[in-house]
Amino acid sequence: MRSILKKRKLGIILSSVFCVIFLFPPAAFFLGNFLINRQSEKWSELKSTAVPWTENEIANHFFELDDSEKVETFYFQSDSSENRTVTCTFGKKGKMITAPIKYWQIDENGILCIFDDSPEERECIKIEKIWLEEDVLYAVRNQQLAKYKYYSESALSEEK
Q1: Which stretch of DSSP H or E encloses residue 7?
Q2: Which residue in 74, 92, 149, 155 has the most C-beta neighbors within 10 A?
Q3: Distinct helix (H) and strand (E) counts, the chain
Q4: Does the predicted TM-score (pTM) go above 0.70?
């Protein structure tokens, strides 16, 4: 009787090992490809719905990332001599935060570019507007969906 139980136990263990070794990797591969394809379909749909930015939607406005872990804010300024600067904060909540000053411009496709020296640089942050409603901005930031709280400078001064 014990030998039969041991053989059954061994059979269960061997079939489990077989499944893990031979069935799980292909299943994970196909599931991963399926999810990647679905994400790229969503990305192409969103990309086609992007709306060009206007200078008035950016100058003297704040964007604050709506995220439970990351901190990212932008305060866009523009003066009469067309100096366009943006004060940024980047980091994780509860950790150190950096606050660089960068430049901004709207490219020929209506995409907002935030950069250090040149909008063509690799580290340029590109924000494509998908939907903007009162105090919420849905965007694609460097090919990732993002939701920002959106404020004008005058709205913030009214709150104080």
Answers
A1: helix 2-18
A2: 74
A3: 4, 9
A4: no
Give the separation between CA 71 and CA 88, rounded to whole angstroms.
10
d(Cα 18, Cα 104) in Å, to the nearest integer? 56
Provide DSSP, 78-104: E-TT--EEEEEEEEETTS-EE--EEEE
Give the pLDDT confidence of 8-62 residue by residue, as tens digits. Answer: 666 667 666 555 565 555 544 444 444 444 444 554 555 557 899 999 999 999 9
Name the helix (H) or strand (E) containing 45.
Answer: helix 24-48
d(CA 83, CA 81): 6
